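ok so I'm stuck.
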Amino acid sequence: LLSKALNPNLLQGLLNEKPLPEGWEMRFTVDGIPYFVDHNRRATTYIDPRTGKSSLENGPQITYVRDFKAKVQYFRFWCQVGLMPSEFEWLNRYFVFMHIKITVTRKTLFEDSFQQIMSFNAQDLRRRLWIIFPGEEGLDYGGVAREWFFLLSHEVLNPMYCLFEYAGKDNYCLQINPASYINPDHLKYFKFIGRFIAMALFHGKFIDTGFSLPFYKRMLNKPWALKDLESIDPEFYNSLIWIKENDIEECGLEMYFSVDKEILGEITTHELKPDGGEVLVTEENKEEYIRLVAEWRLSRGVEEQTQAFFEGFNEVLPQQYLQYFDAKELEVMLCFADLLGSNGPQKFCIEKVGKENWLPRSHTCFNRLDLPPYKSYEQLKEKLMFAIEETEGFGQE
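replied:
not stuck anymore, here's the structure
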């Protein structure tokens, strides 16, 4: 159905274009005709800023959809028709059928995964994954890979490694830590994490935790808004709104185009523009100050880390393949996913299996929980908690 709805050649041409200039966004009319929004000048046009050609010349190129589920279906289809290595259909099918093996131990999960993912050609990471935990007999029909994505994301995104940090005191979404440079290999790790996150999206797996709203917008190449600050630093956002709505000269505020930042206990001054430390903020230029200080708060010294992340990300999944999603939809796609078995989406079910002295068992590939015939709720709770807290690993029957 999707192959009939989309013209792969037109789609490929659309997606093969280089990224849009900064501040630009592509949208679609109800008839499926692309148009372009220039947020810098607050203007719209049918002229593609990358090619100078009008999208009206070719007519509708892709069906525009608002439904999230349909967007995900289109995205999966685009991954298949746009990211395969060959024009020959039979070779594409062989490429998908082939799998790559990733062998990791639970104790050295981070380093094992880093070494292997970075050793593969990025294109190979789009093939079917076959995750192996040595000493565990589970066959990976989806469940083992799902656990690998969950466990590894918990490791690599853990603020303990100083690569990421929580967005705020009461906000446990993640953003890049400007102090990550204390690890001399931090840029290599960010490139690895970029590949890993792209793999999660490409293979339809979910991760343990999510990123901040501005980071999702950066993944989508969408312009940030002042309102985005509220989600990560409400106090800072409210202070900027106060400056915007009040006469700072009447209040006697003395501010300059510079800010102090603290990294690992060291306080330094960052100028928001050349010689900003000597430029006084006035009623006349306060809009520029608000824009620059908000931009600094959203990026604040993580440009190299961000570049390394997206270098790895784009090797596996070019960012333009995500351009039809908004930030909230991307968050849902990355942090939640349908539970898939070997025959597609599987409903969760509970089976009565075994004897009273058995422990519960889960079949992660098929979303099935086997519960023995326990005689009381207390016994069920005891056995279930023991199985959850005291055991890990995969086996096969």
